[in-house]
Amino acid sequence: MITPIAYQEALSHIDAPSSFAALRQTALRKFLQAGLPDSHQEDWRYISLEHLERMPLHAPLAPSGVLPALEDYPGALLAYQDDRLVWQDTTLPASVLGTLTDAIGGGAATWSPSAFGTIAGSGSVGSSLTQLNAALWREGACLRVPAGERLRQPVFLRFAAAEADAMLYPRVFINMAVGSDAILVEHFLGDPGIEYWQNPVTEINLEAGARLTHLRIIEDSNLATHTGLSAVNLDQDSSYRALNLTLGGLVARHQLDLTLTGAGAEARLDGVFIADGRCSTEQHLRIVHQAPHGKSRTLYRGLADGRGRGVFDARVEVRAHADGSDAQQSSRNLLLSPHAEIDAKPQLEIYADDVKCSHGATVGSLDEDALFYLRSRGIDGDNARQLLLQAFIGEALGLLDDTGLRDWLMPRLLACIPRSHPKESRP
Amino acid sequence: MLQIRNLHVSVADKSILKGIDLTINAGEVHAIMGPNGSGKSTLAQVLAGREGYQISAGSVQYLERDLLPLTPEERARAGIFLAFQYPLEIPGVANVQLLRTALNSQRRARGEAEMDAIDFLEYVKDKLVLLGMDDSFLYRSVNEGFSGGEKKRNEILQMAVLEPRLAILDETDSGLDIDALHVVAQGVNSLRRPERAIILVTHYQRLLNLIVPDQVHVLAGGRIVRSGGSELAEVLEHKGYAWLGDEAEFMETHL
Q1: How far B232 CA sits from the closest chain A CA (Å)?
Q2: Whole-model pTM?
Q3: What is the ipTM of this complex?
């Protein structure tokens, strides 16, 4: 059993606003009562967090003061290292974009904390990890787009890990006021070859008619553990479009809880996950249609190579009175090695009349006939395979064109596509 | 250009080709006809390097080298092209991407400079006209949602772009209406060159009225049972394959 001391020790080092001190204590107590999720919980059947118990996890020390080398981010940027803001490059006012600590501590006039903590609090099954985040987050990030405003540039939140065995709790709160419009990119990464644990929670509230396009990229080190939650609330006629990319981490899990609370809201959830080596990655989606005439469309593509494991688990619930709901799910997956595994589990629960719902899931291997077709045109086996894999995941990447981020993202993504296995060298 | 000697091929221990001998010289067009199941498509696939066939005996020489050890892409770069009987649909790969990637792979292998996107569009323009295709074909996913005729035209477009030394057209006439057949035949005829050989694999004679072969071979039961000039195709059209003798008849009824 994990020792609570590490967590309590971590909490004692946080100098956050005192108004939250009691909440943090409560959250930590709840986490310690529940412990880490284990395989008895349905949502945690496949993935194990046991290795965390064996790691000398601790709260990160103060950063070295050396700025990390930053990639080029084409937009506003808040860059965090080991849970502390180390760099920002934005012309947006602090009332729009800043740390969560500042948002809570200052500007009480603009801050309506009623939603904070409640979007992620409701319904999530593996919520002991959410409690842990609520207890231990530092600084955090907060984006509040005022009513009717459209941000011209994407907002990037970069959460990097640089310290081995650090436990990190990125916390993000997004409020899109009535009729506002923005593009948000969350980028999780870490120094190659170090072990750490990122347990982020992002809460997103879309007021009536608001629109958010959200790219979330897990590019953590190949020894890292990532257990992230996005919790999204959609009010009337709002629109949420997401692209979730899981490209890194030894254990990478993303939970997306989305609730259509207002009539006529629309969600489009795209995703690509790639699990190679001994990685395991899980995508859990909970989409709840509470109001009439909501529309949700889920399109995920998964690749597993080596001894990689992937899980796609999506449940759509159409509640009573959510008439006229339209929910579509598509999950297609490719296994690139005989030892790879992907489990696809689409589920529909419908308690309303007059709904349009469908789901489809496939797990297969690369089409040998198509491969031969390309090779017979002179394209070598490795390139032919890359072409087919790019085309396969490309089906889920439509949002890149809408956001203008294709050029920024594609090189990173292409670098993650598994190459063919080198032929055994002959003596 | 191509010498096939005593070629024996089996699939999963079932013998398909039982001793093929065939010599094709540059500039020639050869038709290979025969009943269904005679091994025509197997021969085409084996020449293109498809895996899954066991070559139990025989040899294939192509341009003075042993063809059989080469991978499919090495064969393509050496100038062999197979127009598929059932062209594959590849969602998400644009036709123009396939064409340019293939051409540049071949040019690289030959030590030639790669063609950039602008030069390539210029290069491919005339070839589209030849096949009666408009620009939109370039930007659609490879064969996805194409009609049967469009798929076959697209195969010949690839041939026109890649300019092979030896083109093997596997039942390119099947599934075509008479207009599409004319377009495809016209395309192939315009690609006849003194340095290029073409093998037409077909079940019917009608294609051979439009693309007149130098030689016709009848494949039955895994062997070439008759060879002759283009007049042989007409005889077959009138008499069917049965008159070729007991062996062919046996094979047709029992395979």
Answers
A1: 31
A2: 0.89
A3: 0.93
| Residue B7 domain boundaries | 2-254
Residue with token string 């490309």? A394
Average pLDDT estimate for A109-127: 64
How far apart CA B222 and CA B15 sit, in angstroms, is 8
Q: What is the pLDDT of residues A164-178, one digit of tens each?
A: 999 999 999 999 999
* Residue count (chain A): 427
Question: 3-class DSSP state for residue A60?
Answer: coil
Q: Do A380 and B84 touch (CB under 8 A)?
A: no
- For residue A376, which residues of chain B lie inside 8 Å, CB to CB? 48-50, 72-73, 75-76, 81-82, 84
Say yes or no for a CB contact (<8 Å) between B72 and A375.
yes
Predicted confidence band of residue B206 (pLDDT cuts 50, 70, 90): confident
Angle at B221 between CA B229 and CA B254, to 5 degrees: 130
Taking the CA of residue A342 and the nearest CA in chain B, the distance in Å comes to 22
Chain A, 385-424: which have a CB under 8 Å from a chain B CB? 387-388, 390-392, 394-395
| Coil/strand/helix, residue B223 | strand
Exposure b/e, B65-90, CB count within 10 A at least 16 = b? eebeebebbbbbbbbbbbbbbebbbb
Q: pLDDT tens-digit profile of B92-127?
A: 999 999 999 999 999 999 999 999 999 999 999 989
A-chain residues near B106 (CB < 8 A): 378
Q: What angle do CA A408, A411, A415 make, to 5 degrees?
A: 145
Q: How far is A324 from A290, CA to CA, in rounded Å?
A: 11
The strand pairing partners of A190, in sequence order, are A161
Segment A336-376, tens digit of pLDDT: 999 999 999 999 999 998 899 999 999 999 999 999 999 99
Query: A interface mutation test: which of B45, B46, B90 has the most A CBs within 10 A?
Result: B90
- A382 lies within 8 A of chain B by CB: no
For residue A271, give the nearest of A387, A372, A160, A396 by alpha carbon: A396
CATH number at residue B237: 3.40.50.300
Nearest to B93 by CA among A29, A121, A358, A390: A390
**CB-facing half-sphere around the CA of A40: CA atoms within 13 A:** 4
Give every strand in the sheet of B197-202, ordered side by side.
Answer: B80-83, B166-170, B197-202, B29-33, B215-220, B223-228
With an 8 Å Cβ cutoff, the interface of chain B facing chain A consists of: 48-51, 71-73, 75-77, 81-82, 84, 87-88, 90-93, 97-98, 101-103, 105-106, 109, 141, 158, 162
Q: Count the domains in chain B.
A: 1
Whether residue B246 is predicted with pLDDT greater than 60 in this model: the reply is no
Q: Which of B48, B92, B141 has its CB closest to that of A376?
A: B48
Nearest by Cα to A318 from A285, A344, A345, A295: A295
Q: How many degrees, rounded to 5, is the angle at CA A271 between CA A366 and CA A286?
A: 120
H helices present in A119-208, as ranges: 127-136
Mutate to test the interface with B, among A374, A382, A417 (most CBs of B within 10 A): A374
Q: What is the DSSP string of A353-393?
A: SS-EEEEEEEEEE--HHHHHHHHTTT--HHHHHHHHHHHHH
